[in-house]
Amino acid sequence: MSQPVLLVEDHGPVRLFTLNRPERLNALNQEMMASLRLALDEAAADDGVGAVVLTGAGRAFSAGADLAGFAQMAQEGDQARRVLFTGLEGPRALANFPKPLIAAVNGPAVGWGFTVSLMCDLRLASQEAYFSAAFVKVGVTPEFGSSFLLPAIVGLGRALELVLTARQMPAQEALGMGLLTSMTPPAELLPAALELAGRIAAMPRPAVGMAKALLRHGAEVGLEQVLDYEMRCFRTAMASPEHKAAVEAMLEAIQARKA
């Protein structure tokens, strides 16, 4: 029997979500997104959950969207599937989650792996982690609210440099620019994230929820409009021949490294 693509376990009042496709570096597919949305809904409705930690199984947080899926959509020119893949239900589920959400970034956070961490309220990372907004590298555009959130967190100039170069940013640099709350040795990351989430979960729940909502409201006025514009750009980019060629080239390079 196949393993679930998202593991869910409780640590007292803290619920831990673990992206669980380690053999694919926790790359996002439709099943994982659907599982994450369902898990968020269940955590939001569960009065026993005071905070949620999101991490990845194995050596990666998430390598982004599954390139094999990209390649198939590009090959088939399947616009209906592109629309389904780029639906706003996923980003809205994270943007509207009412409880504290903490990312424990245990390894590479690329593409969606980077942007889903931006949707979290706080981010901790292992010293071995790195971040890459690698969208233009595969011929697509930033998504999941990142065109709003990344400039808001690190500034427009830094955001532009990260997005336009698609370079890898080490955790130490991310910490220095204010993207991270803290950086730890690998073995200490999850305990640190769970401890932080536990301290927050011990606070009066209504006040925590309202404080999060207030701060998000003040910081994110206009995010809904950004989400719609982002996904229209992303769909257009997915239909381009440049995207198809870039994905095929990357898959060939991966296969060559395995050979």
Give an overview in words.
By secondary structure, the protein is an alpha/beta fold. The protein contains 12 helices and 9 strands. The strands form 2 sheets. It has a 6-stranded mixed β-sheet with strand order 1-2-3-4-6-9, sandwiched between helices. It has a 3-stranded mixed β-sheet with strand order 5-7-8. It is globular, with a radius of gyration of 18 Å.
Radius of gyration using CA atoms only? 18 Å
Give the percentage of residues in beta strands.
5-15%
* Quaternary structure classification: single chain
Largest sheet properties: 6 strands, mixed
User: How many domains in all?
Assistant: 1
Keywords:
15% strand; six-stranded mixed beta sheet; 2-enoyl-CoA Hydratase, Chain A, domain 1; three-stranded mixed beta sheet; single chain; 259 residues
In short, what is this structure?
By secondary structure, the chain is an alpha/beta fold. 53% of the residues lie in helices and 15% in strands.
Show the helix and strand layout.
Elements: E1 6-11, E2 14-19, H1 30-45, E3 51-56, H2 67-76, H3 79-85, H4 89-95, E4 101-105, E5 109-110, H5 112-119, E6 122-126, E7 130-132, H6 146-154, H7 156-165, E8 169-170, H8 171-176, E9 182-184, H9 186-201, H10 205-219, H11 223-238, H12 241-258
Parallel strand pairs: 2-3, 3-4, 4-6, 5-7, 6-9
Antiparallel strand pairs: 1-2, 7-8
Helix pairs in contact: 1-4, 2-12, 6-7
